[in-house]
Q: What sequence folds into this?
């Protein structure tokens, strides 16, 4: 018996479609940058650790993680990142979580150096109390069209929202997530849950980058025990390049 010729489709050589993976930087001076990198990678992006100015080259977007804003500001100056970061936040999409919001805000209290001022909000640092007062809460996330579980660890409070700033998440009546154009600030830690919706929204809707559509049982990062979450968020960086000096005075 003569084998049947393959149908037209199968006979054609498969077309090569190259979709460039978005390159998303994660400021990796201190804090929980590793968890953000895992969330971004789970969504198909290439996560790039940003420690030195050259690391910012060719990035489509940047994430500024939670951690200790005073330490991050000092390390930013020490590593020559202030001026390149000021330029980056003026032009590219940036997501700041917790300490990241503090660095992006126009006003914040008790800091050793000025913030980057890219987000027209005022924040009060540690305004929910000490580490022991950290909590989890159900938020109303208009950006996602529904509820989201927010993990708050010595979180900042947004005390002023400028006219061009949209509130994208609330805890009760209080704004805990804001967006001003390409800049997003969240007072909580979406990277400490396995729920990738905020990262997906940032990459897709805010930054306009290609992210695969959600699939049931698809992109996930492992859940971590609540007891470890705050430790991860506050852990100082150990750098692959060795360029990061020890945080001055340790954790605040
Ligand atoms: N309390 C920290 C600060 O002021 C922020 C805490 C966090 O990022 N989890 O920098």
A:
């Amino acid at each position: 018996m003569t084998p049947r010729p393959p149908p037209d489709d199968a006979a054609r050589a498969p077309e090569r479609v190259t979709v460039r993976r978005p390159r998303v930087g994660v400021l990796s001076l201190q804090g929980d940058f590793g968890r953000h990198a895992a969330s971004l990678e789970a969504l198909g992006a290439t996560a790039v650790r940003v420690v030195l100015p050259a690391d910012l080259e060719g990035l489509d977007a940047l994430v500024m993680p939670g951690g200790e804003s005073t330490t991050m500001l000092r390390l930013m100056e020490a590593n020559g990142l202030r001026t390149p970061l000021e330029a980056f936040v003026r032009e590219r999409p940036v997501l700041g979580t917790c300490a990241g919001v503090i660095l992006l805000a126009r006003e914040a209290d008790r800091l050793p150096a000025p913030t980057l001022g890219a987000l027209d909000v005022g924040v009060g640092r540690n305004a929910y109390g000490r580490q022991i007062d950290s909590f989890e809460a159900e938020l109303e996330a208009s950006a996602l069209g529904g509820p989201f579980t927010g993990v708050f660890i010595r979180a900042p409070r947004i005390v002023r929202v400028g006219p061009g700033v949209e509130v994208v998440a609330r805890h009760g009546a209080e704004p805990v997530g804001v967006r001003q154009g390409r800049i997003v600030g969240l007072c909580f830690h979406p990277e400490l849950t396995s729920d990738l919706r905020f990262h997906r929204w940032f990459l897709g809707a805010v930054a306009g980058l290609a992210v695969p559509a959600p699939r049931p049982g698809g992109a996930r990062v492992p859940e971590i025990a609540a007891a470890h979450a705050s430790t991860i968020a506050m852990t100082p960086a150990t750098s692959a390049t060795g360029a990061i000096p020890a945080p001055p005075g340790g954790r605040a």
Remarks:
- The pocket of glutamine is lined by residues 66-69, 98-99, 102, 125-126, 153-154, 233 (CB under 6 Å).
- The chain has a mean pLDDT of 86.
